[in-house]
Amino acid sequence: MKLKIKVPKLGLTIEEVTVSEWGKNVGDKVAAEETIGVVEADKANDEIVAPMAGTLIEIVAQPDDLVEVGGVLAVIETD
Predict the structure, then answer these.
(1) Of the candidates 23, 55, 51, which has an alpha carbon nearest to the alpha carbon of residue 39?
(2) Which candidate in 11, 54, 57, 71 could, as Cys together with 76 as Cys, close a disulfide (CB 3.0–4.6 Å)?
């Protein structure tokens, strides 16, 4: 099953985030709750974690991209 990883609601006034970095590459295995990337919002960094174990099959947002809350960051194929 393909699972889209979306920008979570990080605060009342935050409407978009900037992708800072990815700690995983396409094709890498990820564990549930493992940090796979970092986004920045209002000068604070927040970790993006994999909600389930699987394989990272697509990175939609690249570093320095602005992504709205609810926007897709990456896609994981679950085991």
Answers:
(1) 23
(2) 54
Q: State the Cα–Cα distance between residues 32 and 52, nearest whole angstrom.
A: 4
Amino acid at 61: A
| Cα diameter, the chain | 36
pLDDT at res. 67: 97
Q: What is the DSSP letter of 78?
A: E
Two tokens, residue 7: 């920008």
Does 43 have pLDDT greater than 80? no
For residue 46, name the pLDDT band (cuts at 50, 70, 90): very high
Rounded alpha-carbon distances, angstroms, from residue 30 to 20, 52, 64 = 19, 8, 23
CATH assignment of 2-78? 2.40.50.100
pTM of the model: 0.91
